[in-house]
Amino acid sequence: MDASPRWLTPEQQAAWNSFIRMQEKLIGRLSRRVQTDSRMSASDYLVLAKLTEAGGRMRFMELTKLLEWEKSRMSHQVGRMAKRGLVAKEDCPEDGRGAFVVATPAGREAIEDAAPVHVDHVRRLFIDALTQEELDTLARLSDRVLAHMEDQPD
User: Fold this and answer.
1) Residue of 42, 20, 19 whose CA lies nearest to 138
2) Could you tell me which residue ranges the HTH marR-type domain spans (predicted)?
3) What is the pLDDT of residues 7-37, one digit of tens each?
4) Is residue 78 a contact partner of residue 101, using CB atoms and an 8 Å limit?
5) What is the CA radius of gyration of the chain?
6) pLDDT mean over 115-126
7) How far apart are CA 106 and CA 148, in angstroms?
8) Contact (Cβ atoms closer than 8 angstroms) between residue 98 and residue 92
9) Contacts by 137-145, CB closer than 8 A, 24 or more apart
10) I need a labelling partner for 39 at 20 to 30 A (CA). Which of 45, 48, 87, 129 fits?
């Protein structure tokens, strides 16, 4: 027999709902701004940002895991971006089944143009709403939840 669900208290439900609403609204607005400002999708931006943070080149599966995406989603995303000249896929000489995703010069230019505008929106919509102490607390809480999630089954 299954144990009864551990329902959230009204306070827990309110905290969860506020967090989800804030996250969805923030990501939605940032995604629309990236699309409008740079004509890149939010997914294009994420892939290029992670690639350039890593020096412009990453193993396909490492990038997939970093973004918490399914392999098929990453494959389709990389394919679309490659057709537009933003990334290239290179074979991995050490591993015949592995591949690298590489930011092309056009991809680097696209992220370099988009990043300053994106960070302005992040600052305006998120950073400026909080004090440094609140940001520090949020970072600690986020790190705690992330560490907790690592200990939980997927």
Assistant:
1) 19
2) 1-147
3) 999 999 999 999 999 999 999 999 999 999 9
4) yes
5) 19
6) 96
7) 39
8) yes
9) none
10) 129
